[in-house]
Amino acid sequence: MTINHAILGILSCRPMTGYDIKKIIQESDIMHWSGNNNQVYKALIELHGEGLVISEVRYQESLPSKKIYTVTEEGLKVLREWTALEPEPAELRKPFLLQLKWADVLDGAQLQALLANYENQIRICLAMSREKARRGDGLKPRSSRESFLWKMIDKNAVSTYQNELDWIQGVQKQLSELDAGGADKLELQDS
Amino acid sequence: MTINHAILGILSCRPMTGYDIKKIIQESDIMHWSGNNNQVYKALIELHGEGLVISEVRYQESLPSKKIYTVTEEGLKVLREWTALEPEPAELRKPFLLQLKWADVLDGAQLQALLANYENQIRICLAMSREKARRGDGLKPRSSRESFLWKMIDKNAVSTYQNELDWIQGVQKQLSELDAGGADKLELQDS
DNA sequence: TGTCTCATGTAAGGGGTTACATGATTCC
DNA sequence: GGAATCATGTAACCCCTTACATGAGACA
Is the pTM of this model over 0.85? Predict the structure, then answer.
């Protein structure tokens, strides 16, 4: 999976400029690239060189001229082939889990603060993913099947964060029960 | 979060060699680095230069000599400080979702195959995370509180994959219902 | 004979990131 | 006056990855 595939997909919805593509990538959660100029414009030049997209320059008064990119038949073919491939495995990077791994070096209050902090963060992510699902990403589904798929993608984000929220709340609850009921069992407690 | 923090944490459990650290990182799910030589040995040199770890060379007959690294008080302080920091936001990279985003270019059979493929992949991840939780990572918890935290970390992985499995099964089920009941509503179907 | 484990290190390259550069218009 | 939008592109850098290099013993 490279940003080139993402760009081909975006352009398959409608022709647009690198600037438009950049914004879509930046606002998307499933496209994990930053959407910086270097990447997007370089990728477009590459795709153009491979004949997967064509570009048409449109001059504008009092605004910089734009290059409008369109996918070619060849580009659609590459997109179709990539889409059907065995998916690359997901990479779930949760730095918080690594902090939690060594969190026994913290005292009770610090640990509670860390957990509460993460819960709050996840709440925000959950709210944002709901909001993004409501707003959409500026692309229009081309069929009812595509509309269904895109709704499912939004639901994936929401349910992922909801699951994480349930988990962190469980951790907090069980920890408070441990602190209350089983204090005598804990060996390294200072308080 | 850098690999240096992960290494400080690992060494806080017990002194060991770069080679040992490498294996722990490679087998860990929450440490997302590949654990290649370049990274680990370079990080150890850096940590040593900063006085966060010290090393002792042990010569062995008929085996290469090893450098056994130990965290210093200063290193533990840095670990404690980092652990209590505001967690960096999670990065969830699911290439499959990007394939699904453009999957309307596929026909019905191809889409079903893609979904089934992902379900299978997630099943394997779920089984592996359960197995890893059972086996442990070779580090011994230093307190019952740490033991609890590590169990929760394992549960996080399991519940994440379980949630993903439930989701992909829901997608498949709803899609088959759409195909069966609402076929007339779909505009781009070839069959 | 070939491959694996132990054990440390280096080299080369790819991909991603931020920041710079231009330049007119619009909005506060 | 300063910042944001539109629009394209470049430069420098950092992190991470694979692959190479050494070299002895164990195992099939």
Answer: yes
